[in-house]
């Protein structure tokens, strides 16, 4: 393997003939292990006074091989690498289902207050009353927004929230003595992959239900699937096609009549805050992605937080630990199954109390918006998506007719005859200065493009994006093939070979790779 | 509202471009009985930055934070000094506000740092490969057990008596529905080696923590031998990864999978999260194919230049759905970056020095505390954490210490529940502790006993 050379001279120029990458702003950067040395250290540590050994014969004798850097070299390495990333702070990030909204910096500052950041999870409860108070306030906001009875704060991300909700449902079924007979979970084929994966991880059998021609649950098919062995339905609402399920109440009623439960995937809560409460839709359990709706930063893939709201039918099964608060007294923490109120808890999701750093950020976000602002968030998110839909619908091919909620879904029929695929189109969008939309999800639509602008985009930003999209669609129709098949041409890397990566996996650096 | 760019004029213009009269037309699919005409009127209205800051400052001030007191808590979360540049770098917009690197051409920053992270995790654990992170050490442990069951096609799992009880509970919760048969022994400081006797032909894995929850350092080699002799796997758990700077790595001692908590490097205590679960395993196709979560891998771009992508994703939920190896999607992204930057600043030399400093401080503290009348040090071998037997219930003692401004460790009963371990106190020391802290702790402990 040759040393990393980004030979920019050989890469095709941008379509306007200029080279847009400045070597001064986008520096070549090798791997940490190529630039660092095991003898280098960027931290001044207190000198060792003595070197006791109470490790028995288990002291390390081998080298780890860790590469070290001085502090200035460290800054350069990571700042240079950072410049190879797109980010919300750079531009519109229309990843459908991911809710890439602005991340307020007040929230970062608040999460770093020493009373939150420098607090140990197992300190005496008397010394962490403010932290427990914050968790209690966060719970209050989440319960007001959803109308539900109880919230389990500990799940670490959306998928873990799904697990929490489904394990509550399983515990409720077990409490009724029906575990052996009630094991089928209905999952629409448009569902996010975590839904079937979660249901399977909870020991259920998955039964797919199809979508109808309007992108909603096919009610006939759904009703045919109902029976005494149905444990639950896992339904995203608004769904992954960006549409509200108009029959949602009927779905809830029917599943309840058949003795099952309604799990709602709350990834798309951003569209309905202050417009309706999921309790009134008949939901029994729903996770909330604080890293979507409540703006905690995605951080290149995490961390998130997935608090899970529960109906009164499931409340007593909520996992450990949880905060208690009798009016007028101090906050308590229930961590053991033997403690009061914990007898039915189904278990524990993670080592401590959940993602405190995310709780602080989410509460700061909610307080900043207030009840009035959260409703405005949903209205603007839906307005922005519909505005894009209106601007694009005559050229692009909306997957379904009518308006949408917070995201607009297109299929690839507008590209028919152009030779351009959804993948090529997405990569070409990079050369227009944008992160692509979600591609090929949901699976119910051919060559899906799911566009979610969020409420934090200005009208000007939406118009620029729509213009870029329309001009690309025109280029596809004009058979400007290179603009698509060669894309991206202006990115720090050209199209990457994913097949080779999977066929010959190199998952770590080793001295002999180079 | 400072985060919302649209003006009322914009909104009016947009509604007419869409072709609707008012915003509620766009919400027409919501059943009318469920609509909220008055919105969330039980919640307060929007607040200024100052007002929010004032309120949260007040809540923050109601806690006794680790920097305000001589501080000796561990038990799976450790207070270490994080260099200022780490927190600065992870707040770079391009790292902080980017999504999972699904479009690798404009996410090489995240992907290369993940590749470096995976390498560092493999290096310190002595394993072949590592994934791009799990939620925390406990969920990594549960996932490792499921992975071992798939690899061995067996269902038995034996938990060592020194495993953090929360790790045991999480593992039980997250694996119970998959038919895993869990066995364990009563908690004990120095009995981990005995689980070798429980291994049977149905054992998929044994799960051993070192240093264990009582701080005791465990020799994994004989346990690896016992497991392998029966066709089972050894899962090594580590909640204090700084120890790996001074201890033989799990890989050297024969571990097949390592599940660890990476919080100690680069990440704040933050009242329990977000943390960063580490999962490493043998560099063996059979293992990698059954691993949970994401992997970053090296490849080339259309120019032949090196680049990185997320790879082997046919194991994951977005491709494999109900047959995925795990349901994990979002992981601990930014915490892996903090971990990786801190470890880059330390390097081999700094990492070893840091570990030695922790050990030195813990040895000094253990000797001081053991001289307090009625206090007994129970560990023979430890790294930066140890267990004391007190003449009184430890919960009471810790409360009394707290009222005198000392955060003096974790009563075993806090994590195991009340019972036979009531008089045990688990104490940790790190490079953040000064001689004065230790003297104060020793003095106040003598007073409250
Ligand atoms: C619809 C939907 N459900 C579930 C999830 C899973 O959430 P997380 O990534 O936080 O685990 C996501 C996001 O990735 C999603 O878009």
The helix fraction of chain B, in percent, is: 25-40%
Characterize the biggest β-sheet of chain B.
Answer: 7 strands, mixed
What's the CATH C level of the largest domain in chain A? Alpha Beta
pLDDT averaged residue by residue of chain A = 95
Strand segment tally of chain B = 13
How does this model look, in words?
The complex is a heterodimer of chains A (514) and B (449). Helices cover 32% and strands 10% of the residues of chain A. Chain A is of the alpha/beta class. Chain A folds into two domains: 259 residues, Aspartate Aminotransferase, domain 2 (3-Layer(aba) Sandwich); 124 residues, Aspartate Aminotransferase, domain 1 (Alpha-Beta Complex), CATH 3.90.1150. Chain A has a seven-stranded mixed β-sheet, with helices on both faces. Chain A is globular, with a radius of gyration of 26 Å. Chain A starts with 31 loop residues before the first helix and ends in an 11-residue tail after the last helix. The N terminus of chain A is likely disordered. With 449 residues, chain B is α/β, with parallel strands linked by helices. Chain B has two domains: 115 residues, Aspartate Aminotransferase, domain 1 (Alpha-Beta Complex); 259 residues, Type I PLP-dependent aspartate aminotransferase-like (Major domain) (Aspartate Aminotransferase, domain 2, 3-Layer(aba) Sandwich). Helices cover 37% and strands 13% of the residues of chain B. Chain B is built from 14 helices and 13 strands. Chain B has a seven-stranded mixed β-sheet with strand order 1-7-6-5-4-2-3, with helices on both faces. A four-stranded antiparallel β-sheet of chain B has the order 10-11-13-12. In chain B, strand 8 and strand 9 form a beta hairpin. In chain B, helix 3 packs antiparallel against helix 11, helix 5 runs parallel beside helix 11 and helix 6 packs across helix 7. The model of chain B has no long low-confidence stretch (mean pLDDT 97). Classes of the chains: A alpha/beta (514), B alpha/beta (449). At the A-B interface, helix 2, helix 3, helix 4, helix 5 and helix 6 of A face helix 1, helix 2, helix 3, helix 4 and helix 5 of B.
């Amino acid at each position: 393997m040759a040393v990393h050379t980004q030979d920019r001279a050989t890469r095709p120029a941008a379509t306007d003939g200029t080279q847009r990458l400045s070597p001064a702003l986008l520096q070549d950067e090798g791997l940490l292990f190529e630039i660092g040395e095991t003898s280098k250290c960027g931290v001044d540590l207190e000198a060792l006074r003595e070197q006791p050994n109470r490790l028995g014969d288990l002291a390390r004798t081998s080298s780890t091989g860790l590469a070290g850097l001085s502090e200035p070299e460290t800054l350069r390495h990571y700042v240079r690498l950072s410049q190879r990333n797109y980010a919300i702070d750079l531009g519109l990030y229309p990843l459908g289902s991911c809710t890439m909204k602005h991340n307020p910096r007040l929230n970062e500052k608040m999460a770093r207050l020493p009373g939150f950041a420098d607090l140990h999870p197992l300190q005496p409860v008397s010394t962490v009353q403010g932290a427990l108070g914050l968790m209690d306030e966060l719970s209050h906001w989440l319960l007001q927004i959803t109308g539900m009875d109880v919230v389990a704060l500990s799940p670490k991300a959306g998928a873990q929230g799904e697990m929490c909700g489904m394990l509550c449902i399983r515990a409720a079924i077990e409490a009724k003595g029906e575990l052996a007979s009630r094991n089928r979970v209905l999952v629409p084929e448009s569902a996010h992959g975590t839904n079937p994966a979660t249901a399977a991880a909870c020991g259920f059998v998955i039964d797919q239900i199809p979508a109808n021609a309007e992108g909603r649950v096919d009610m006939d098919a759904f009703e045919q699937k109902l029976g005494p062995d149905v444990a639950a339905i896992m339904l995203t609402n608004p769904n992954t096609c960006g549409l509200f399920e108009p029959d949602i109440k009927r779905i809830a009623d029917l599943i309840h009549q058949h003795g099952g439960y309604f799990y709602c995937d709350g990834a798309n809560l951003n569209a309905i805050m202050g417009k309706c409460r999921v309790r009134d839709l008949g939901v029994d359990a729903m996770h909330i992605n604080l890293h979507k709706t409540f703006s905690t930063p995605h951080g290149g893939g995490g961390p998130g937080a997935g608090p899970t709201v529960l109906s009164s039918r499931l409340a007593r099964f909520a996992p450990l630990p949880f905060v208690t608060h009798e009016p007028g007294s101090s906050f308590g923490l229930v961590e053991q199954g033997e403690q009061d109120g914990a007898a039915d808890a189904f278990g524990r999701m993670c080592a401590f109390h959940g993602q405190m750093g995310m709780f602080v950020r989410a509460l700061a976000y909610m307080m900043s918006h207030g009840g009035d602002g959260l409703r405005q968030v949903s209205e603007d998110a839906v307005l922005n998506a519909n505005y894009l839909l209106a601007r694009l619908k005559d050229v692009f091919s909306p997957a379904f007719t009518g308006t949408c909620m917070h995201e607009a879904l297109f299929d690839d029929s507008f590209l028919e005859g152009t030779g351009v695929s959804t993948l090529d189109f997405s990569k070409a969008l990079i050369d227009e200065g944008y992160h692509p939309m979600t591609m090929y999800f949901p699976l119910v639509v051919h060559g899906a493009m799911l566009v979610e602008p969020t409420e934090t985009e200005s009208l000007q930003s939406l118009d620029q994006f729509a213009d870029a999209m329309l001009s690309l669609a025109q280029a596809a129709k004009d058979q400007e093939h290179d603009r698509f098949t060669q894309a991206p041409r202006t990115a720090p890397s050209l199209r990457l070979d994913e097949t080779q990566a999977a066929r010959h996996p190199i998952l770590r650096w080793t001295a002999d790779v180079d | 509202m400072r985060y919302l760019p649209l003006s009322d004029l914009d909104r009016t213009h947009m509604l007419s471009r869409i072709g609707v009269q008012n915003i509620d037309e766009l919400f027409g699919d919501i059943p009318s009985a469920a609509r909220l005409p008055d919105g969330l009127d039980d919640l307060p209205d929007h607040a200024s930055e100052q007002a929010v800051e004032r309120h949260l400052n007040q809540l923050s001030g109601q806690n006794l934070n680790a920097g305000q007191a001589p501080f000796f808590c561990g038990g799976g979360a450790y207070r270490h000094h994080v260099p200022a540049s780490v927190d600065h770098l992870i707040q770079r917009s391009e790292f902080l506000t980017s999504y999972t690197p699904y479009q690798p051409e404009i996410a090489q920053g995240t992907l290369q740092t993940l590749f470096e992270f995976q390498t560092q995790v493999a290096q310190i654990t002595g394993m072949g490969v590592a994934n791009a992170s799990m939620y925390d050490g406990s969920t990594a442990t549960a996932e490792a057990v499921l992975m071992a069951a798939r690899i061995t096609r067996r269902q038995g799992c034996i938990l060592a008596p020194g495993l953090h009880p929360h790790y045991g509970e999480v593992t039980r919760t997250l694996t119970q529905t998959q038919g895993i048969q869990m066995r364990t022994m009563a908690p004990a400081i120095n009995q981990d080696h005995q689980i070798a006797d429980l291994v049977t032909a149905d054992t998929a894995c044994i799960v051993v923590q070192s240093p264990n929850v009582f701080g005791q350092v465990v020799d994994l080699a004989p346990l690896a031998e016992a497991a392998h002799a029966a066709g089972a796997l050894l899962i090594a758990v580590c909640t204090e990864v700084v120890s790996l700077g001074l201890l033989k790595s799990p890989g050297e001692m024969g571990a097949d999978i390592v599940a660890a908590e990476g919080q100690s490097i680069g990440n704040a205590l933050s009242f329990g999260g977000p943390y960063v679960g580490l999962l490493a395993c043998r560099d063996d196709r059979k293992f990698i194919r059954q691993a949970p979560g994401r992997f970053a891998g090296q490849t080339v771009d259309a120019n032949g230049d090196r680049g990185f992508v997320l790879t082997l994703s046919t194991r994951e939920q977005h491709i494999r759905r109900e047959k995925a190896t795990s349901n994990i999607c979002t992981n601990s992204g930014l915490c892996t970056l903090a971990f990786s930057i801190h470890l880059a600043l330390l390097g081999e030399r700094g990492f070893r020095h840091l570990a030695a400093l922790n050990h030195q401080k813990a040895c000094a503290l253990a000797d001081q505390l053991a001289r307090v009348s009625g206090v007994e040090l129970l560990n023979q071998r430890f790294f930066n954490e140890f267990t004391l037997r007190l003449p009184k219930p430890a919960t009471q003692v810790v409360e009394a210490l707290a009222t005198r401004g000392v955060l003096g460790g974790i009563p075993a009963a806090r994590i195991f529940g009340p019972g036979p371990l009531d008089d045990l106190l688990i104490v940790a020391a790190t490079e953040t502790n000064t001689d004065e802290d230790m003297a104060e702790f020793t003095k106040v402990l003598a007073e409250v006993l």
